[in-house]
Design goal:
6-stranded parallel sheet, about 325 residues, 10 helices, two-stranded parallel ribbon, Rossmann fold, single chain
Length: about 325
């Protein structure tokens, strides 16, 4: 008799547990998926995010570029946020023509400083979390060890200064709700970048001269886009405490190289018999100065978000398979 009663109680408990599980799953299905706004949606990182978005079942995405939303227009930005509930904003928009910025100072300032400022104000007002992509160019010193996020900044040129001003505006306007991610030497199968330029020149010439005394690390935009989504996913799932979603972080692929070695690797992977000559920065003068050394220490993003980072040669090979 006792055994029958015990079995009956166990059966009832199982039914109740199953009912609770069903209700939890139903509630989860009813829960609105977070919406991610991506500005600069037609750029290298924006296009990679578009590809990743097709595989996502966790988020809804809104991709905009200047035709859909001019981030330099504060009224337009605020109006957009009022009409579209945004949970996260990834700002990929930037003026990245480093040399042209020296003659288009006002445009660079509007896109790199005013744009992020407008977005951060709107994000703060509408309680949206913001990820803002920045650059290694803000570090331009004689340092010869990888930069950490608290190292001294010394931007040289319009591009670098406007980007740093944008970083500072974002962090000031949305404390505790904005993350600035500084990266370096970005390339992808989309847009204009060093990899595609080398492939184009390699098809036209038999010999090239490339700078060897600027040291850094290439970043595959696909890897950068994935990290942005990983940060959001881990924040949304509460795997990582929201308190870490603030301040400056670094991300690039692993490893160290020069532009010369980067070019040699590109031609080796593509089996293009191009002779590459190493030259010094002084032999190739440009309107804007480049950082001589811009390796980024990535310990913070690895420790706080558990990010695994591929070596630059591995990621380069993946990209070149698409080109």
């Amino acid at each position: 008799m006792f055994s029958l009663l015990f079995n009956a109680l166990v059966g009832i408990a199982q039914i109740l547990n199953e009912g609770q599980s069903i209700r939890k799953n139903q509630e989860k299905m009813k829960k609105k998926r977070p919406t991610i706004l991506v500005t600069g949606g037609n750029g290298q990182v924006g296009m990679e995010l578009q590809k990743l978005a097709t595989l996502s079942t966790e988020f809804d995405f809104i991709f905009v570029d200047i035709d859909e939303l001019d981030i330099t227009d504060a009224v337009a930005v605020n109006s957009f946020f009022k009409k579209n509930p945004i949970d996260y904003c990834i700002n990929c928009a930037a003026y990245t023509a480093v040399d042209m910025a020296e003659s288009e100072t006002n445009l660079a300032w509007k896109v790199n400083t005013i744009g992020p400022e407008n977005l951060s104000v709107a994000c703060a007002a509408h309680k949206s979390l913001m990820l803002h992509i920045s650059t290694d160019y803000v570090y331009h010193t004689q340092q010869t060890k990888p930069y950490i996020e608290t190292d001294f900044t010394n931007p040289q040129g319009t591009y670098a200064r406007t980007k740093l001003n944008g970083d500072e505006a974002v962090l000031k306007n949305h404390p505790g709700g904005a993350l600035v991610l500084r990266t370096s030497w970005v390339y992808s199968s989309f847009g204009n970048n060093f990899v595609k330029t080398m492939l184009r020149l390699g098809a036209e010439k038999e010999e090239l001269s490339i700078i060897y005394d600027q040291i850094g690390t290439p970043t595959y935009a696909r890897d950068l886009a994935q990290v942005l989504l990983d940060i959001i996913q881990k924040t949304e799932d509460q795997v990582v405490d929201k308190k870490y979603f603030t301040g400056v972080y670094h991300f690039s692929n692993e490893g160290v190289t020069s532009w010369y070695d980067f070019a040699v690797a590109i031609f080796d992977f593509k089996k293009m018999p191009i002779k590459v000559n190493p030259i010094e920065t002084k032999d190739y003068p440009t309107p804007a100065k480049r950082p001589p050394y811009s390796l980024l220490n990535k310990a913070k993003i690895k420790n706080n978000y558990g990010i695994n980072i591929a070596h630059w040669q591995h990621s380069l090979r993946e990209c070149l398979e698409l080109l």
